Amino acid sequence: MTIKGKAYIAGIYEHPTRHAPDKSTAQLHAEVAKGAIEDAGLSKDDVDGYFCAGDAPGGAWPMVDYLGLNTKKLRHVDSTETGGCSYIIHLGHAAEAIAAGKCSIALITLAGKPRTGVMPPRAAGAEADFESAYGATTHNAYGMCAMRHMHDYGTTSEQLAWIKVAASHHAQYNPHAMLKDVVTVEDVLNSPMISDPLHRMDCCVVSDGGGALIVTTPEIAKSLKKPLVKLIGHGEAMKGPRGGKDLDLTYSAGIWSGPRAFEEAGITPKDIKYASIYDSFTITVLMQLEDLGFCKKGEGGKFVADGNLISGVGKLPFNTDGGGLCSNHPVNRGGMTKIIEAVRQLRGEAHPKVQVKNCDLAIAHGTGGLLGVRHAASTAILERV
Amino acid sequence: MVDAKKYPAPVTNPETAAFWDAAKQGKFMIKRCTACGEAHYFPRSICPFCYSDKTVWEEASGEGTIYTWSLMRKSPTGPYAIGYVTLKEGPSVQTNFVDCDLEKLKIGQKVKVVFKPTDGAPLPFFTPA
To answer: What is this structure's pTM?
Structure first.
């Protein structure tokens, strides 16, 4: 049993807003749902599967009602919550549901407004009394990963900076990007230290916004007018310190989700023409590239240096929309926009200055939670038909 | 400075109450499984490694080394250093480093436990040994 080729991404939509104080979160979900449904050339009444995560106000059933989905038809719901990679996991689960005949047109939505206001806290886990007082935040949790990676492998701040430099080269062509200025390695190193060893420019932006996908059967996708993009491999995994015995912050659960996806797809990292890699921080990208097998563990620093991630310059063009580091990071969750830019690349709809030539195989990979504490990861491999 | 910081009181629950009772006596406890012999942290009643329910409380030495750390330069309560300590007994624990120059922390540095008061049970922190 495999989901290889059983589901196509027929609709994508990224909300152009980066700051939406005048809109409600549910409204943003509706706007991205409408955008993706229209992009696919479908109607909301065609949707028979709905997927959302913790950002959806009230969860799945209030959202299904608010969105006015056709409840006589809707027959599959999934509200898997794994932080920023939820939507990459939803993509895989939608493919599983479609392959099993449980739905045929799945809608996945993400939206929220962390730039406008503070997001509600996550429910406490069993670890709360033993961790919450220590103030783990995204900045310092990823700072701890970077600190140990530098210690074990000699990774440098200059090497991390190259990831931001590459993202900024792409963002200059994205009219919606929050940060459009091209920056240098020196700019990154001279930006204020936020949580050692991460500088401000090692960190992603905080933005309002959202995005949505339509996932469907091969037959329905072929009846629509969009270029065909199919899911050929998917993986998901989780990782934590497990009683304090397994603490190793130099790798992520991507070390498991990646090979699962590549094995299902029947390809290797060398075949990938474009990579969407979650970039909550520069170190996130470096660790993921290693974990996914684009280079050996510990060699991520060398791999990303000297523009290797810049489209048209390096060997592995990444995050050609500018990613979380420069464009947006809707709801502090980067998984959705990673899929959307990968689909744009495969459709040939990326900005001409960053469009990868003959882009037929792409990866969209993300993590959720904190790499420095406990987290999930998900990998999707997409092919242009 | 760091001593003036107000820390939240642990909520505690039946599974972990003994840890906090011991903390009030200045003892830093870990759990050990008598079936597989492995120690773990934070404490669970079921061993996360072999799923035996034969876990027992053990007072740890409170000594360990810094696995990693990061100095948060700004926060509403001022700078603080978060990190992990690998205990002599094996498990790694998340903590803050206190009562020291936070800019001079080093991976591999020896540290020891120190308790800080809350409105409830005290919380364990680590400081250079």
So the answer is: 0.97
